[in-house]
Specification:
The complex is a heterotrimer. Chain A is of the alpha+beta class. Chain A is about 45% helix and about 15% strand. Chain A has a single domain, classed as Cytochrome-c3 Hydrogenase, chain B. Chain A has a three-stranded antiparallel beta sheet with strand order 3-4-5. A three-stranded antiparallel beta sheet of chain A has the order 8-9-10. In chain A, helix 4 runs antiparallel to helix 11. Chain A is globular. The two termini of chain A are about 40 Å apart. Chain B is of the alpha/beta class. A four-stranded parallel beta sheet of chain B has the order 1-2-3-4. The longest helix of chain B has 16 residues. By secondary structure, chain C is of the alpha/beta class. Chain C has one domain: Beta Polymerase, domain 2, CATH 3.30.460.80. Chain C is about 25% helix and about 25% strand. In chain C, the strands form two sheets. Chain C has a five-stranded mixed beta sheet. Chain C has a two-stranded parallel ribbon with strand order 6-7. Chain C is globular, with a radius of gyration of 16 Å. The chains are: A alpha+beta, B alpha/beta, C alpha/beta. At the A-C interface, helix 1, helix 3, helix 8, strand 8 and strand 9 of A face helix 2, strand 3, strand 4 and helix 4 of C.
């Protein structure tokens, strides 16, 4: 705690400032470090935070209500816009839930392409999160490199589905387009290129003493706190728990690939940072294996013309860029869902912020906020 | 002896010929508009998906810096143009109105993306949370359609704003090959 | 000791006890503790409890090391009920449990589980926002995703803007 200040006046009188003079600082909805429209009402004691209360809802776009007003196919564009940095994963979850409920078979080639595009998307998502986080800490260079790498991935994605950010590439039963040799060769060339870049980032950023001083020991979220709050993704793996939906609830053809689940026990921001850097390397491994194994064949399975799910509820979870994303569709047999519930990772990842940031100094709290890698429309849906 | 510099001005050349290389006359307004157009400072107001394309436009590949607009200011007091990139929510309306009011004249607004133009893909009968277009809150100068618009489209929007300010377009419009 | 499906089924059956048949119950009501096919439904164990038993169910799963995944509200307008579905996941074993409870629609109240799982605090606030279900004992049931002065509950089936 800060000791009370004593002010000695020229006349000899001594005034003790009250020991706790707290004020409320509003990290408003518009803030360069807020990663979107997040508002945090912080009760401060000087530079120290006594209470940080996140206020959300500034980008609430009614995805769940729209799920009830749209047929299954018409809801697909919405899925990309929930978390636009990991758009493929979110479409994958919704498409998977419908395929599960309607028992639609997906051809093998389509599954392989889904895995390749998902892992490319994961790398792109981690790059933006990494670049924006280092920019919050004051390093303005890595984000330029990150966006440059990301442009290569986006060129490949644009080639196959025409969109750079909000793709609608997966459809019920497969994909909307097949990939051609340009994409496969481009993905193959991307892997060694990205490996070289990761090596550079390790030397330039990860081993940088300023970054280490800013992140090591900051913002500890341990495994028990993660369990009580339902935190998943790199935040959980940075607390030492090797939980990955691709292993825990295997979906698509992930059991065919060999990849490690990086986890670090420290639970601080540096651990979460290292998890993300290692995950990019593991994604490259998966892409290589998928490119070697990809078969020829159709990319679209048999789908009924009017898609209706039998009554009941169906869940499908994927490992999105930020954690576990689950879709729960409650169907009453019609061609629009009765209820679509989107369990988004950032909602759960932000919930321990209030407890974890007590007593932290403000720049450290922002470093921790960056380490959670939030996308605010993911929280608000 | 009359030196060339002291040569009297003639009606069709009010400036002595030797000086005309280095002296130009123009209206002060035009000069100010030219300088404002070439140094637009955007406000960092990315709300949703379009924010990422706005960031990409500022990055190395598409480079808004060529047009003088790379200095994104977080404070509205220091910004000229508010690029509303993303969906405007009813809960967000007081904040965005405050930001617009706090910007100093002259100020401009670019509505980037379908959400800022007219509510975008989030408009359906019975919607309760989205403001259908930021021009319901304050006047918009340039509309950049797309969901999200490509970074080149945002650059075209900036160029359109420059054209609105100066009356002249910086680069010729590309003609489609017939 | 990691929990197993059989162990959880038995403990839940003991917790729920004999289920009283409601006068309007269908002829073959689904069993309250059901082991379901993960490949179709996405969960392993589907449990139906009375609203008063949700806290005990949460404590049971907390003892076994589960984590709260999400809380879903569903508005069954035709049946005059609202359903709250609690999804739980475990970090060490691949088990997914869904706990459901139904409350009457005109008086939707259910005890809060935020004292057992602090993560449920936000999920319950959001469910209250969308459906108007009151979570008894919740420390802060104010609008969360909706504007601070909102009094409407938009995901109700009879909501008119």
């Amino acid at each position: 705690m800060i000791p009370p200040k004593e002010i000695t006046y020229a006349g000899g009188g001594v005034l003790s400032a009250p020991p706790e003079e707290s004020f409320v600082l509003n990290l408003g909805p518009q803030h360069p470090a807020a990663h979107g429209v997040l508002r945090i009402k912080m009760t401060m004691d000087g530079e120290w935070i006594t209470r940080a209360e996140p206020v959300i809802g500034y980008i609430h776009r009614m995805h769940e209500k729209m799920g009830e007003n749209r047929t299954y196919a018409k809801f697909l564009p919405n899925t990309s816009r929930i978390d636009y940095l990991a758009a493929m994963h979110y479409t994958h979850a919704f498409v998977g839930a419908v395929e599960r409920g309607a028992r639609i078979e997906v051809p093998l080639r389509a599954e392989y392409i889904r895995v390749i595009t998902s892992e490319l998307q994961r790398i792109a998502s981690h790059l933006v999160g990494w670049g924006a986080w280092i920019m919050d800490l004051g390093g303005l260079t890595p984000i330029l490199y990150a966006f440059d790498d990301r442009e290569r991935i986006l060129d490949l994605m644009e080639h196959i589905c025409g969109a750079r950010l909000t793709y609608c590439y997966y459809r019920f039963g497969g994909l909307c387009n097949d990939v051609d040799d340009y994409f496969l060769q481009g993905a193959r060339d991307f892997v060694p290129y990205m490996r070289g870049r990761l090596k550079m980032y390790r030397a330039l950023v990860t081993d940088n003493i300023i970054l280490r001083k800013r992140l090591e020991g900051i913002g500890i979220i341990d495994a028990e706190m993660c369990r009580r709050y339902g935190v998943t993704g790199p935040v959980l793996r940075g607390a030492g728990v090797p939980y990955d939906v691709r292993r825990a609830e295997p979906y698509s053809i992930y059991p065919r690939f060999e990849f490690a689940i990086p986890h670090y026990p420290a639970g601080d921001s540096m651990a979460r940072y290292l998890v993300r850097m290692d995950e990019m390397e593991q994604s490259l491994r998966i892409i290589e294996q998928a490119l070697d194994q990809i078969p020829a064949g159709p990319v679209m399975g048999k789908v009924p013309r009017v898609l209706k799910l039998p009554a009941g509820d169906y869940c499908y979870a994927v490992e999105a860029g930020r954690g576990r994303f689950m879709v729960r569709i409650v169907s009453d047999g019609k061609d629009t869902p009765y209820r679509v519930k989107l369990r988004t990772p950032c909602f759960a990842n932000l919930s321990p912020f209030e407890e974890a940031s007590k007593g932290m100094i403000l720049p450290d709290a922002l470093a921790m906020l960056g380490s959670l890698d939030l996308v605010i429309p993911d929280i608000d849906r | 002896m009359e030196t060339p510099v002291n040569a009297p001005p003639t009606p069709d050349s009010p400036v002595p010929p030797e000086c005309s290389q280095i002296v130009r006359f123009a209206k002060l307004d035009d000069l100010l508009q030219l300088s404002r157009a070439n140094s637009l400072w955007p406000l960092t107001f990315g709300l949703a998906c379009c924010a990422i394309e706005m960031m990409a436009a500022g990055m190395a590949r598409f480079d808004l810096s060529r047009f003088g607009a790379e200095v994104f200011r977080p404070s509205p007091r220091q910004a000229d143009v508010m690029i509303v990139a993303g969906t405007v929510n009813k809960k967000m309306t007081p904040a965005i109105k405050t930001l617009y009011d706090q910007m100093l004249e002259p100020k401009w607004v670019i509505a980037m993306g379908n959400c800022a133009i007219s509510g975008g893909p989030f408009v359906y009968p019975g919607q309760y949370a989205v403001v259908e277009g930021v021009d319901k809150l304050f006047p918009v100068d340039v509309y950049v359609p797309g969901c999200p618009p490509r970074p080149e489209a945002l650059i075209e929007g900036i160029l359109k704003l420059e054209e609105k300010l100066t009356g002249k377009r910086r680069f010729p419009v590309a003609k489609l090959k017939e | 000791m990691n929990p197993t499906l059989e162990q959880l089924s038995q403990e839940f059956t003991r917790l729920i006890g004999p289920v009283p048949t409601a006068p309007a119950a269908p002829a073959n009501p689904p069993p309250p503790v059901q082991v379901v096919d993960f490949a179709v439904r996405g969960v392993n164990l589907d449990v139906t409890v009375a609203p008063g038993q949700v806290v005990a169910a949460a404590e049971l799963l907390n003892r076994h090391g589960f984590s709260i995944d999400t809380i879903t509200g569903v508005d069954w307008l035709a049946e005059g009920q609202m359903e709250v579905v609690y999804d739980y996941l475990h970090f060490a074993v691949s088990l997914r449990v869904a706990v459901r409870a139904r409350v009457p629609r005109d008086h939707p109240e259910i005890p809060t589980i935020s004292l057992v799982f602090p993560g449920a605090n936000w999920h319950e606030r959001e469910t209250h926002d969308f459906f108007g279900i009151r979570f008894v004992g919740h420390p802060n049931l104010t609008p969360f995703l909706l504007p601070e002065d909102a009094t409407f509950h938009p995901l109700r089936k009879d909501y008119q803007p």
